[in-house]
Amino acid sequence: MTRVDPLRKLLDAAVEGNDRALSELVRLTQADVWKLCTALGSRGETEDLVQETYLRALRSLHSFRGDSSVRTWLLSVSRNVCADHVRRRERQRRLIERVTPLAADAVTPGPVFIDEMIDGLSRDRRDAFVLTQMIGLSYEEAAQALGVPIGTVRSRVARARIELAAVVRQSEAN
């Protein structure tokens, strides 16, 4: 016997524009989403992760196929939000490590040096790099923002990384 998903009616009503149904859906699922974001996210970031979960879910309500329960789908969205958050923080950490000289006696590049390095990139590469590596957009989101294919964003970011690494190596040699 198939169990009826009590949240499905709320989701369907929310898709039709019923704000009350949407509010009730959030109310009934928020505790689980909050717990998952607390467990998978970074300390102090839970509220932002929960908000991002619901924003992503709202954007894709119409695409819910019903392959799983609404709660499972929403927790999957939440897990992806948290995973993206962790990847973004890891990229930021690696970027900082790359632009910081490893030599103990080297002068640590301050914000001005880093800004100058990034400003030295071509506009296309700088835009792709800043959107994905500093702001944390996914490559897909950056592609949409820039109006270019995702592969173009990937290649621009890769080339920007190569240029920035060369600048760091050159500054370490001096």
Explain this structure:
With 174 residues, the chain is mainly α. The protein has two domains: 101 residues, RNA polymerase sigma factor, region 2, helix turn helix motif (Rna Polymerase Sigma Factor, Chain: A); 69 residues, Orthogonal Bundle (Arc Repressor Mutant, subunit A). Helix content is 73%, strand content 0%. Helix 6 crosses helix 7 and helix 6 crosses helix 8.
What's the tally of helices? 8
> Helix- and strand-based class?
mainly alpha
CATH class term of the largest domain: Mainly Alpha
In total, how many domains does the architecture comprise? 2
Work out the number of β strands: 0
Low-confidence stretches: 102-112
Shape: elongated
CATH topology of the largest domain: Rna Polymerase Sigma Factor, Chain: A
Question: SSE order, as H and E?
Answer: HHHHHHHH
Helical content class: over 70%
* CATH homologous superfamily heading of the largest domain: RNA polymerase sigma factor, region 2, helix turn helix motif
Question: Architecture of the largest domain, CATH level 2?
Answer: Orthogonal Bundle
Domain RNA polymerase sigma-70 region: 25-91
Family: Belongs to the sigma-70 factor family. ECF subfamily.
Keywords: DNA-binding, Sigma factor, Transcription, Transcription regulation
Domain RNA polymerase sigma factor 70 region 4 type: 114-163
